[in-house]
Design brief:
- This protein is α/β, with parallel strands linked by helices.
- The chain has two domains: about 15-215 and about 335-400, 3-Layer(aba) Sandwich (Rossmann fold); about 240-245 and about 250-320, formyl-coa transferase, domain 3 (2-Layer Sandwich).
- Helices cover about 35% and strands about 15% of the residues.
- The protein has helices at about 25-35, 65-70, 80-95, 105-110, 145-150, 155, 170-195, 205-210, 215-225, 260-270, 270-275, 285-290, 290-300, 305-315, 325-330, 335, 380-385, 390-400; strands spanning about 15-20, 35-40, 75, 95-100, 125-130, 200-205, 240-245, 250-255, 320, 340-345, 350-355.
- The strands form three sheets. It has a six-stranded parallel sheet with strand order 3-2-1-4-5-6, sandwiched between helices.
- Helix 1 (about 25-35) packs across helix 7 (about 170-195) and helix 3 (about 80-95) runs antiparallel to helix 18.
- The radius of gyration is 25 Å and the shape is elongated.
């Protein structure tokens, strides 16, 4: 398979990724997708644990790894050794961005904290991802997404009233933190370019990344003293927006909460009485009579197949959609038309991985390669990046830092 040259908007940007698993590597994945030269530092012998997480292919490699580490180069360096720390220190001197997701203070313990490079690489953007941030009373706690989603309030509102809070079967907090790390990195690069302020540190926490997504939960509490509770498949204070079972056993989501949309929806299900009911003309009244409305909608969907329900709703311009599994998504014509899947070469075989978004019309991102072998680019990267420092390069070649 031919490898396309990287021509993304971040082409020419050097990024050193230090960390593993999900949060930091998600940021590195996005930056690499849009053209940055992302060099991933991994421990020799085992590499990032994500290499062997979850479903494995015939080579014992994670399918997820080939997506998460796309477009990156792998350098195997033992960060616990003095030689390894020296090598990474030299690499940081020559890059634009560092992305790290160790526990707060870990980089400092290796002599690799941002203050070390304030004078030697003043343009450096140093992006840090941790559970609770670099300051505050919780900064030393291990910050797994599972715990941080609870701390940030997301798990509290997720699920059904009176039942155990539900976790989506995803590392949502980690991914959100990775996205925030990308945003912070690009903001810092923009400030460096436009405001001539040089580099700076970007402090991203999983807790705050999740808290950023909590919409009006805090303003409602601070302003009205209202604590939002779990509400199952509904959205508190907005009606109708719920999930309904169809005659074929599948579920559809219907969002008919706009005033004119609600009238069209009620007429579609042949409930003219509800369409013309002045009590339901606006959202506050519909909230008061939520059970009545949901009962009418469930009675209607329960008589029809999900396809029939969705076709009728689309014709009436009522927002709705199916609850898709990944197999549904893989066959969905819209995802196909939007080029939501890309092909990469893995051990000489074509492998499909998800494309990343957003789409840029002139400088799009793309997947040029799958996740690399452990240490595949060690010699290549160090020879290339350390060429201007022959002493450091010679010291590396004499050391065991890469073994």
């Amino acid at each position: 398979m031919e490898t396309k040259p990287l021509q993304g908007p971040l082409s020419g940007l050097r990024v050193l990724e230090l960390g593993q698993l999900v949060a930091g590597p998600t940021a590195g994945q996005m930056l690499a997708y849009y053209g940055a030269d992302v060099v991933k530092i991994e421990p020799p012998g085992k590499g990032d644990p994500l290499r062997t997480w979850r479903e494995l292919d015939e080579h014992g490699e994670s399918y997820w790894w080939h997506s998460m580490a796309r477009n990156k180069r792998s350098v195997a360096v033992n960060l616990s050794s003095e030689q390894g720390q020296n090598v990474v220190r030299e690499l940081i001197q020559r890059c634009d961005v560092v992305v790290e997701n160790f526990r707060a203070g870990k980089m400092e313990s290796w002599g690799l904290g941002p203050e070390v490079f304030a004078e030697s690489n003043p343009a450096l953007v140093y992006t840090r991802v941790s559970g609770y941030g670099q300051t505050g009373p919780y900064k030393d706690r291990l910050g797994f997404a599972s715990a941080c989603e609870g701390v940030a309030g997301f798990r509290y509102v997720n699920g059904f009233p009176g039942q155990v809070p539900v976790r989506p079967n995803l590392s949502l907090g980690d991914t959100l933190a990775g996205m925030h790390a990308v945003i912070g990195t690009l903001l810092a690069l923009c400030a460096r370019e436009r405001l001539n302020v040089g580099g700076q540190s970007v402090d991203v926490s999983i807790v705050e990344s999740v808290f950023n997504m909590m919409e009006g939960v805090y303003p409602e509490y601070a302003g009205a003293g209202v604590q939002r509770e779990p509400s199952g498949a509904t959205l508190t204070g907005i009606v109708p927006t719920n999930t309904y079972r169809c005659a074929d056993g599948r579920f559809v989501v219907i969002g008919g909460n706009g005033d004119s949309i609600f009238k069209r929806l009620m007429r579609l299900i042949e409930r003219e009485d509800l369409a013309d009911d002045v009590r339901l003309a606006h959202n506050p009244g519909r909230v008061e009579h939520e059970r009545l409305i949901d009962g009418a909608l469930q009675a209607w969907t329960g008589q029809l197949s999900s396809d029939d329900v969705l076709e009728r709703l689309a014709a009436s311009e009522v927002p709705a959609g199916p609850i898709n599994s990944i197999s549904d998504i893989a066959q969905d014509e819209h995802f196909q038309a939007r080029n939501s899947f890309e092909s990469v070469d893995v051990h000489g075989q074509e492998r499909l991985i998800p494309a990343l978004h957003p789409k840029l019309s002139k400088t799009p991102g793309h997947s040029s390669s799958a996740g690399p072998r452990l240490g595949q680019h060690t010699d290549e990267v160090l020879t290339e990046w350390l060429a201007a420092n022959p002493e450091a390069l010679a010291a590396w070649r004499e050391s065991k830092a890469i073994d």
